[in-house]
Design goal:
The protein has 15 helices and 21 strands. The protein has 487 residues and is an alpha/beta fold. The protein folds into two domains: 247 residues, Aldehyde Dehydrogenase, Chain A, domain 1, CATH 3.40.605.10; 181 residues, 3-Layer(aba) Sandwich (Aldehyde Dehydrogenase, Chain A, domain 2), CATH 3.40.309.10. The strands form five sheets. A seven-stranded mixed β-sheet has the order 15-16-17-14-13-18-19, with helices on both faces. Strand 9, helix 7 and strand 10 form a beta-alpha-beta unit. The termini are far apart. The protein binds nicotinamide-adenine-dinucleotide.
């Protein structure tokens, strides 16, 4: 069994306890992970707090911080194969995806490395002749980052990159389901030469997460996960009135009009829902299709879904791997069962595969006659597509917006004027037109409603890790007059 340790204050340690991590492809333990206690959380936050004020970080120029981030990006690229293999082994995310994603993780760090010395303050043309007023943009302080298991390296990079570029320090709590990639990542941090305590990684479940996010010495909480946990996080952060950024789930519509390039739309829908075995917050989990082309489109989707290569996530030929945990697999099965009871028709898939590991096949449910089917509203991480149809544009928008979430939407049409009308009316943080699931360090990512608030990616994410300080400087040498006159 491989051993993975915490990284606190620049030192690797066993943690108060350990737990076994399961290989989702076999359902058996493969590695032993350190598990934090509340005392470990305290140590990690203290390390981050001390590092935040220590001169080797606090007085480092933004350009020098950028160079450290660039060095980290290079190390990520050099060690990409190893990181991808570990993420695949611990979470079941297929190697095709982890290898492609790790290259992009390095790009995110490069982007924020370049951005570190472009976070600027401002000078104000103040309405008083003898005053100079300017704004300093200062790092918000100690950031607690809490992430789920899916795409952990990526979801961590979009927090760590901008937070460090802004000059913050970070304590990251990896997911209890598959923490190994984050613990391995910490080694590169060490090699890159960051001052001790600037970045710390601990593992553990809800209790450890609660201790971290309610900690009095945490200034900002950056969270990715489900809406129910987010409510706990917001309550926890109230302890310290820490600011929060929340990237939560989605129930994203994938809207297809009859005039669309249907070959492209089919391919985008297949990867939009079945990539990452459906464990993606932006999964296009609701197909909203023009009624006249529904049968043809569903027949094409069914054929593609049934041809998907399901197998060992470590094999480059595999297109769909196991779900990360047995809990996820059972949850997908229970939502499908309830949806069929509510009138949804099974087009393909529907039951866990009878083999070792947590495998579930690509599944399509036709909910045209089952508007109340729970699969249309429940956000669950599984390779399950729910289908509804529309007859006109107004109905398409009504169905698309009939959700408490608002993270992403796909729109397939060749009609430019319609596309612009739809873009305006769809309530979500991202709209992809004639494409799906494209991301970039340069573009913001985040949602409305139960999909959370705050944005990751782009300049805005770095600004969210700063606070503005207004500085007033009196330029007159005259004595200050009457003390009781307000100026
Ligand atoms: P989750 O909310 O159960 O857990 C996420 C993290 O929160 C884990 O590290 C967990 O240990 C921690 N946690 C749990 N209870 C806590 C508490 N009381 N206080 C502090 N921390 C606590 O989510 P999950 O089931 O691991 O992940 C799936 C969810 O994440 C889905 O809802 C999905 O949509 C969402 N997600 C969103 C994005 C995005 O960018 N919007 C990306 C990926 C996943």
């Amino acid at each position: 069994m491989q051993i993975f340790q915490h990284y606190i204050g620049g030192e690797f340690s066993e943690g108060a306890a350990q737990f076994d991590s399961l290989d989702p492809a076999t359902g058996t333990p493969w590695a032993r992970m350190a598990e934090a206690s509340v005392a470990d959380v305290d140590r990690a936050v203290a390390a981050a707090r001390n590092a935040f004020f220590a001169p080797d970080w606090a007085d480092m120029t933004a350009t020098a911080r950028g160079k450290l981030l660039m060095r980290l990006a290079d190390l990520i690229a050099e060690n990409g194969d190893q990181l991808a293999r570990i993420e695949t082994r611990d979470t079941g995310k297929i190697i095709r995806e982890t290898s492609a994603q790790i290259a992009y993780v390095a790009e995110y760090f490069r982007y924020y490395a370049g951005l570190a010395d472009k976070i600027e303050g401002a000078h104000l043309p103040i309405d008083k002749p003898d005053m100079e007023v300017w704004l300093r943009r200062e790092p918000v302080g100690v950031v607690a980052a809490v992430v789920p298991w899916n795409s952990q390296l990526f979801l961590s990079a979009v927090k760590i990159g901008p937070a460090l570029a802004a000059g913050c320090t970070v304590v990251l709590k990896a997911s209890e389901d598959g923490p190994a990639p984050m613990l391995e990542f910490a080694r590169l941090f060490d090699q890159a030469g960051f001052p001790k305590g600037v970045f710390n990684v601990i593992t553990g479940g809800a209790e450890v997460g609660a201790a971290l996010t309610s900690h009095r010495d945490v200034d900002h909480v950056a969270f990715t996960g489900g809406p129910e946990t987010a409510r706990h996080i917001v309550r926890n952060s109230a302890e310290n009135l820490a600011s929060t950024s929340l990237e939560l789930g989605g129930k994203s519509p994938f809207i297809v009009f009859a005039d669309a390039d249907l070959d492209s739309a089919v391919n985008a829908q297949v990867s939009g829902i079945f990539a990452a075995t459906g464990q993606s917050c932006v999964a296009g989990s609701r197909l909203v299709i023009e009624a006249g082309i529904k049968d043809d489109f569903l027949a094409r989707l069914k054929a593609k879904a049934e041809a998907i290569v399901i197998g060992d996530p470590g094999d480059m030929a595999t297109e769909v791997g196991p779900l990360c945990t047995l809990r996820q697999r059972d949850h997908a099965a229970s939502v499908i069962e309830a949806s069929i009871k509510a009138g949804a028709k099974l087009v393909t898939g529907g039951a866990a595969l009878e083999r070792d590991g947590f495998y579930f096949p690509p599944t399509i449910l036709d909910c045209t006659d089952a508007p109340d089917a729970p699969c249309l509203t429940t956000e669950f991480f599984g390779p399950v597509l729910s289908v509804t149809s529309f007859t006109d544009e107004a109905q398409a928008i009504a169905i698309a917006n009939d959700t408490d979430f608002g993270l992403a939407a796909g729109l397939f049409t060749q009609n430019l004027t319609r596309a612009h009308r739809m873009i305006r009316r769809i309530r979500s943080g991202i709209v992809w037109v004639n494409t799906y699931r494209a991301v970039s360090p340069i573009a913001p990512f985040g949602g409305h409603g139960l999909s959370g608030h705050g944005r990751e990616g782009g300049m805005q994410a770095a600004l969210d890790y700063t606070k503005v300080k207004a500085v007033w400087l009196r330029t007159s040498d005259d004595p200050i007059p009457d003390p009781f006159v307000m100026r």
